[in-house]
Amino acid sequence: MQERDLRARFRQGDPDAVREVYGSHGRLVYAVAYKVLGDRSLAEEATQQTFLKAWRAAQSFEAQRELGPWLAAIARRVAIDLYRREAVRGTDPIESVAPAHPALISSPDSAEAIYDVWEVREAVAQLPPEEQEVIRLQHLEGFTHAQIAERLGIAAGTVKSRSFRAHKRLAAMLGHLRE
Amino acid sequence: MTTSDNDRISYLSGEAVDSLTPQERADLDELRTLLETPATWEEPDASLEDRIVSAIAEESRRERAAESAPPASDTPKTRRRFGLIWPPRRPALAFGGLATVAAAIIVAIVIATSSSSPAPLRFAMVVNGTPLAPGAHGSATLTKMSSGWEIQLSATGLPHLANGRYYQAWLKNPAGILVPVGTFNDAEHVILWSGAPVTQFRSFSVTVQQANGNPASSGRRVLVGIAHPVR
User: Do B36 and A22 lie within an 8 Å CB cutoff?
Assistant: First the structure.
């Protein structure tokens, strides 16, 4: 009922409702777009287009569907369209294009790969901030526990226990534990 | 939790664990790969929320305006002129009139197609203030002309700058290359020009600059927006 009311207000262009939907799903939409496009400014453009498309289609949205997967599906389509637009542009000499540029990648990620990122990002967002930071430094930056301890100014034992707790929570949320 | 779960968590945490099967290892490696993916961590610019709210509010306003506007042509059943009601025309005369109109339309189409030039390439955008100017907002149209791209910017909420301080507008392409497109003191009605194609340089920003001989961007962005094609 609450979500239905939110969607009705979203459809009317109520700025509070748009902010509420962005607050709950904006980062996830951006993550989907970024996964496809690998570029900040294009991912932001795709996120904006996704919200505009969702706003235009909000009246036809089925009440029993969840908002998140619906937005993710729109974001993926929008991002793939942008990806194709970037891929056909081809005005820069190839040696001046960054290796990660979408035009040089053979094909966009599958829907499954994108939903995996969505799920992992959602799970990470539920961790306490200090555990998120340890996980980010360890996996994204490739730091060892000792380097994280030095970076954060805490004991290596604390990093190890935070890392264990955080991975345990993630594994449980993402179904990687047996019980 | 079983011992095996402890082993799985230790493996995820980066410790060497020998007791896992290859399948378990592959499942956990998949999760580790996802945790290493930048998309899992990348955060959008803080101004994106405001840009989206403004874009939707703008489109909502346009939609409401279109709904409340009267129809473009309203053909009356009886034609009035100087307060008199004209009698309906006889069919033969009416047919003659129709033929004249049809001929005129055909001539117009022939002229239009023979001298046809493509519709001007146009982009538009909503611009929003950054945390340096949270109250600023506005819009811009970007039109391809023979001499370059004309950018008509209209924004409110930015103070008039003087005494060596001024605004500078920029366009940026996805590779991060900045092109200056003009300087001004007041953002309410500004016409800027770009020699770089808006089809590629779609990210727009306005910075506050000081006339101190350094032409580079100060990085103090007060307005941002992304241009979208207008169909």
Answer: no
Interatomic CA distance for residues B228 and A49, integer angstroms? 10
Using a CB-CB distance cutoff of 8 angstroms, which residues of chain A are in contact with residue B1?
A: 177, 179
Q: Which is nearest to B169 in space by CA: B155, B188, B182?
A: B182
Of the ranges A22-31, A102-111, B101-110, B209-218, which is most confident? Answer: A22-31
- A35-85 pLDDT per residue, tens: 888 888 889 999 999 999 988 887 777 766 778 888 888 998 999 888 877
Q: What is the pLDDT of residue B107?
A: 44
Where is pLDDT greater, at A177 or B53?
Answer: B53
ipTM confidence: 0.76
Query: What CA–CA distance (Å, rounded) separates B28 from B5?
Result: 11
Which residues in chain A are closer than 8 Å to B40, comparing Cβ atoms? 31, 117, 120-121, 124, 140
- Which of B6, B19, B16, B40 lies closest to A139, judged by CA? B40
E strands, B52-187, are 80-81, 84-85, 122-129, 137-145, 148-156, 165-172, 178-184
d(CA B4, CA B140): 60
* Dihedral sign computed on CA atoms, order B3, B6, B12, B18: negative
CB-based contact, A60 to chain B, within 8 Å: no
> φ and ψ at B160, to 5 degrees?
-65, 130
Q: Tokens 């966009």, residue? A: A108
**Euclidean distance between CA atoms A121 and A22, whole angstroms:** 15
Is the per-residue pLDDT at B133 higher than 50?
yes
At B170 the three-state DSSP class reads strand
Task: Note which residues in 60-89 of chain B have CB less than 8 A from chain A.
Answer: 60-61
Q: Which token pair is B172? A: 């940026």
Neighbours of A109 (CB within 10 A): 20
Nearest residue on chain B to A38, alpha-carbon basis: B39
**Structure confidence at residue B29 (pLDDT):** 86
Average pLDDT over residues A135-151: 92
Cα separation of B50 and B149, whole Å? 26
- Considering only CB atoms, B53 lies closest to which of A12, A15, A31, namely A15
Indicate the average pLDDT of chain A. Answer: 80
Contacts of B52 in chain A (CB under 8 A): 18, 22, 26, 47-48, 51-52
Q: Which residues pair with B194 in a beta bridge?
A: B149
